[in-house]
Amino acid sequence: MQRSCSCNDFTRSQLLRAGIAQAGRGLPSIEPGMPLPAGTGMDRRSFLLRSAGAMLAVYGAAALSPRQLEVGIAEAMAAPPNQPVLVSIFMEGGWDALSVLAPVKEAKYHELRPTLGLAEGAGQVFSEDEALMWHPQAAGLAQLHGEGKVTVFPAIGYDPPDESHFTSRHYWEVGELNTETRSGWMGRYLDIAGNPNNPLQGLSLDYSLAPALATTRVPVAAVSTPSDYQFWAYGLDEPLTEPTMETFGALGALAAPSPAFAQARAASLDTSIIRNQVAPFAEHEGKPGFTSPVTYPTSGGDFPARLAVLAAMLDDEALPIKCVSLNAVGGYDTHSDEATTLSTNLGETVESVVAFQRDLEARKLDQRVVVQLWSEFGRRPRENGSGTDHGAAGVSFLIGSRVKGKMVGGFPGLSKLDENENLINTSDYRAIYAAILGQWFQTEAGLVIPEAGTGLEGPSHYGQVPGLFT
Amino acid sequence: MTPASASAQASSAKGKARHSRRAKHGLRVSKHAKHKHHKRKHHKAAPRHATVTPNSAGLAGAPAPPAIPVSPPPPSSAPPPAQVTAITAAQARRLLWRAGFGPAPGQVQSIAGQSLETAVHALTRPAGAAHLSGPEPTDDEGNALDPADAYGQDHCWWLDRMVRSDQQLVERMTFIWHDWFANSNEKVGSQQRMLDQNNLFREMALGGFHELFLAVTTNPAMLVFLDGIYNDKHELNENYAREMMELFSLGADRGAYTETDVKEMARTLTGWTAEWTESKGWQNFHFDSSRHDNGNKTVFGQTGKWNYEDAVRLCVTHPLHASFFVSKLWSYFVPAPPAPGTLASLEGLYTTSGYSIQAVVEAILMHPDFLDGSELVTPPVVYNAALLRAIGRPIDTTAWAWLSAAAGQQLFYPPNVSGWDFTHWLDTSTAKARWEIASYVTAKSYPNPWPGKGEAAYSSTETPAEAIEHAFAYWATPALGEESKQCLENFSARCLNGVITASWQNSPYRALRQNALRMLIATSPDMQVS
């Protein structure tokens, strides 16, 4: 194959241009971050999608079977920017609802929690139900709630409750009480609303993919650190870096003889696409690829940094991100040593979430982003000494400038518990999903959550949550 | 499970248990999607959820999950199907990848053509102590490893055994038990205690499951990890009681036990404790009869003054245990669940052999579904060990610990008590980490494009075909598919066209090409599956 360029200094952008020209696509091209080519009408988004096509065309073997690139590119370009975004944050292990929003006015609470019970006055009173008190480490949430930016579900769950981490978490992830479902609820939404060429539409900011984002037809991605998604190897450098990465991607576009092989091929192809997409956020010669308008906390591991880069990525309309999943700081399976573990993890998580909301507000993105905090279940009201065992109903929050800020389902009280002495739920998680799908994403919820109805304001098998957003 | 299991580093929790069976409700199979779904993602129309067809898995392209049937067939005395002809080279390669940690140079050729029984028994019936050949493992400065105290060196210590041990299946089974009884040092808080547990897994790797399960139940790492030391007759802690049934022996959602059984099992298990000192942490793990609930307990409908030994026995003799055990063990070796006849035979083999792990593993390794069925994605640690075995490099850096963690698997730190999700190893994050693993593996043997004084320059005449040949030879000639090879040959033939414009570039650019080819082979999708 002849290169269209024979100069000595064969740069990356020239290589890409050459590839596209030779692929017969006939469009000039640019590097991510370079000025847009004048007069072509191309923006960064269409460029990024094109570069994926170039890669396949340059090194693909005769048997190459790429996705339907032309169709996919056209679809992605047609999608308007400023789409609604859901950020799902998982509190792994089953967080203790009775500590996050503690029913301190109930005598039964102090009887069930002789050592772990929070004292009245330790935190702020919950304004919508004065029997409840915010955990002192959830003060940031209390403040956002005061601004009308938090909708509280004080006893959320499903019937019959399952006390297994894995089963219950799975139910929440797939959006139905079915151990056999293999796609996540956000994944099924993306299967309907997503694009066959844009793995970034469903993004796990983690070392692996979140099951709630599992799709059946469109790609999704996991990126642990978007600011460091670079491929370096010993003795490999310019001018061969780009051709190598293009071949890496092309190997991913070949046909696969088995599901395992398909997983491996897809990972290679999607990796090469994502590499182009997140390139502008990479640290370059010691300089960060983006700046945040607010200061994020320094504690809390990777969590605050991930939220910071996420806000910057949402601010780039070339990156059509729809659903994002993160794990909160730490774990919440507090069978022992609950007081310390919960306080630390909750405090660090809340602090970062508040910073993220302020960041979105400063960037004027807050109207199109909503955050959900969720956990697989709450914990047993009666403590076991230093901790609590698995329970049933738990607590969940929807956070954002467009949430209604009005509690859904009340707190049921501790006087009547279920047959396993667990908290009774007053809202069903599937109703919340239906409302997010219908009212936030403007999609027919029944396409994603079985028996959810339209999810707008219509009837649902799981109860209605009318007017969740303003 | 552990409160610390969701550390910022740990990947998200994944329950194998939750992926126990294929979709049947809400996901009807549409006609057109039944074939060619292995190609994924090319259906661009967006049908309704009710007609969406997953390929065999929720994640597009993911392999099928382990299947633990709700209504398994009863045990059968019929022998499971087994191949009677000699083992082929492709089968030998698979055996070495799945029952060990990849082939050493020449190993495939030396096994191919043997009788299958000879090849399998060489793995399943090791004699005496393992022999570790080659240099002892060291850190980056050449010091001996300190696995009990230095962070990450526990991982490297075990990786070394995987690379060097001549009892490859013993290490592979140890690896499986570490996932089956997944404890994380994140909560256990003592590398020595984790290493002690690791040695327990190794010693009992191919013995009886009943004995292994009992030993694990009173193992100090497990007593810390699932709060057995807090389970007192006055303050029950259900953690171990639940997981011993759900994850270790019976499975969730099969009707094997009730919430009442969980509580009664917790009472049954009371009595174990340990002493805490600020300087030494948990010490002196022991059974204290004053903490044990001596009353009658009713578990699975049987009533008695049970203790922890009874707890294990009741699980192992439960009618749904054998099907759980063989299905779960099978899933580590074969992606598709066993056919009912095979399942029944394996159950029969397991129970009549007195719960012999070795008997079941042997039958699985000789089964046609294992030898000739479709691929599995290779776990990150196996991938890392296999690359090192291929080039004969000993453990001489501790980088493997963090590299493997980024690829989704740091030994002694599983994400939670259900272990790693063996069906979802590869995504855009872990694929990048495997790239880094491959690069680090080449670090001491790559040709330097820009050699210093006294260093030899790379060939200035190597042809594209020679470059391919040399790159494959570097990795001890792995088996890549024809299409992938073609893609690499295209790259080798084209990547320097128009790039080399001056004679001084001949050698360095050929070195770049050689390094690129080595990376592309090692990170190819073909090398991620076996």
Report on this structure.
The complex is a heterodimer of chains A (470) and B (530). By secondary structure, chain A is an alpha/beta fold. Chain A has two domains: 108 residues, no CATH class; 305 residues, Alkaline Phosphatase, subunit A (3-Layer(aba) Sandwich). Chain A has 13 helices and ten strands. In chain A, the strands form two sheets. Chain A has an eight-stranded mixed sheet with strand order 6-5-7-1-8-9-4-10. In chain A, strands 2-3 form a two-stranded antiparallel ribbon. In chain A, helix 2 packs across helix 9 and helix 11 runs parallel beside helix 12. The termini of chain A are far apart. The N terminus of chain A is likely disordered. In chain B, strand 3 and strand 4 form a beta hairpin. Chain B is globular, with a radius of gyration of 25 Å.
Strand content range of chain A: 5-15%
Domain tally of chain A: 2
Kindly name the structural category of chain A: alpha/beta
Low-confidence stretches of chain B: 1-65
Total helices of chain B: the number is: 22
Helix/strand layout:
The complex is a heterodimer of chains A (470) and B (530).
Chain A: H1 12-22, H2 44-59, H3 69-78, E1 85-90, H4 97-100, E2 101-102, H5 107-112, E3 133-134, H6 139-146, E4 150-157, H7 165-174, H8 185-193, E5 202-204, E6 221-222, H9 241-252, H10 259-278, H11 303-314, E7 323-327, H12 338-362, E8 369-374, E9 394-399, E10 427-428, H13 429-440
Parallel strand pairs in A: 1-7, 1-8, 4-10, 5-6, 5-7
Antiparallel strand pairs in A: 2-3, 4-9, 8-9
Helix pairs in contact in A: 1-2, 2-3, 2-9, 2-10, 6-12, 9-10, 11-12
Chain B: H1 89-98, H2 107-111, H3 116-124, H4 153-164, H5 168-180, H6 185-188, H7 191-203, H8 209-217, H9 220-225, H10 239-249, H11 259-269, E1 272-277, E2 281-287, E3 297-299, E4 302-304, H12 308-316, H13 321-331, H14 340-352, H15 357-365, H16 368-372, H17 380-391, H18 399-406, H19 428-441, H20 464-474, H21 482-494, H22 506-522
Antiparallel strand pairs in B: 1-2, 3-4
